[in-house]
Amino acid sequence: MASFTTTDGRTLAYRLAGSGPTLVCHPGGPGFSSRYFGDFAGLGDHFTLAMLNPRGTEGSDRPSDPRAYATEDYVADLEELRAHLGLERMLLLGHSHGGVVAQAYAVRYPERVERLVLASTLARFQAEQEGAMTAAIESKSGEPWYEDAKAATEAEQAGDWGTDEELAGLVLRELPFYFASYGERERAYVETLDGEIPVGDALKLFNAEVFTSFDLRPELPGITAPTLVITGEEDFICGPACARDLTEGVPGAELTLLPDCGHFVFVEQPERFAAEVAGFLA
C-alpha cells in the first residue's frame, strides 16, 4: 500500500502491483476500495497496476463533508493521483462506478488520457436496463440464496441500514446477483471481501440523488482517447444496453461483450478479460 497527501490535506491510498507501463484503475461502489480487484485477472503481468482506494476507503481519509462524494469529487482525486504518479498521460481503467468517474475524467482532462477502458459501467440508468435488471433478478428465483439476496438488495438500494458495518453485511448478501452463475469460484471470491467496510455516505448519496437521474451521454463526444467498452452479457446492473450507450456516444469506441459473465468480468472470465484489456492497451 502506498499513499500521498492531496492539496487539501487528505491522505489518498492506492495499491501498486505488477510491472510494465502504469495502468491506473478506479474501483466502483461508490464507497469501495480496490480490494475487490484482487489480482485483477493477472493484468499485473503486463502492467504496473496503480489501484486507487477512493476517498473514505481503506487507508484514504474521509472528507469532512459527508456529501463530498459527487462525481466531480472523485474526478479531482483521480487527477491528484495522476500528478502524484508523475504521469503526463495515463492508461485509465474504471470499473462500475469507477467507470462513471473515468468517463467524467476523460471529458474533463482529455489530454491526460492515453487510452481508456470502461468495464461493466454505464452513462445512465435507462428503462431498458431497469427491465433487464428486474428480469435477471427473477431468473434466479430458484436459487437457495434468492430470497435473502433480494431482501438485501432492496434494503441496500433503499438506504435501509444504519452503520457502514451493516451496509457491508447487506452487500455480501446481495452479491450472488452480480454473477452469471454463483458457483464455488464465485463464492470463494466473495469470501475474500468479508471485512471490507464501505463508505455508506457515498453509496447513499449515489443511490438517492444520482443513480436514477444522471446522464453522461451528452458529454461522451468530448472523450478523445481510444476507448474499450467491456461488459458481461449477463451483467444485471450494467449490461449490454449500457455498453451500447457508451459505444454509441464515445467516438470510435470498441465494444466487447463477454459471454457467461456478470458484473465482475475479471472474476468470471479472467483470461478473456485480461487478454482483451492487454491487447487493447498495447
Please tell me what the overall shape is.
Answer: globular
**Could you say how many structural domains there are in total?**
2
CATH topology of the largest domain, by name, is Rossmann fold
In the sheet with the most strands, the strands line up as: 1-2-4-3-5-6-7-8
The ordered H/E elements are EEEEHEHEHHHHHEHEHH
Number of helices: 10
- CATH superfamily of the largest domain, by name, is Alpha/Beta hydrolase fold, catalytic domain
Unreliable segments of 5+ consecutive residues: none
- Total strands: the figure is 8
Helical amount: 25-40%
Give Rg in angstroms. Answer: 17 Å
Give the integer mean of the pLDDT values: 96
Quickly give the structural class.
alpha/beta
Describe what this molecule looks like in 3D:
With 282 residues, the protein is of the alpha/beta class. The protein folds into two domains: 2-128 and 214-281, 3-Layer(aba) Sandwich (Rossmann fold), CATH 3.40.50.1820; 137-204, no CATH class. Helices cover 38% and strands 17% of the residues. The protein has an eight-stranded mixed sheet with strand order 1-2-4-3-5-6-7-8, with helices on both faces. It is globular, with a radius of gyration of 17 Å.
List key phrases describing it:
single chain; eight-stranded mixed beta sheet; alpha/beta; globular; Rossmann fold; 282 residues; 2 domains
What does this entry show, briefly?
The protein has 282 residues and is an alpha/beta fold.
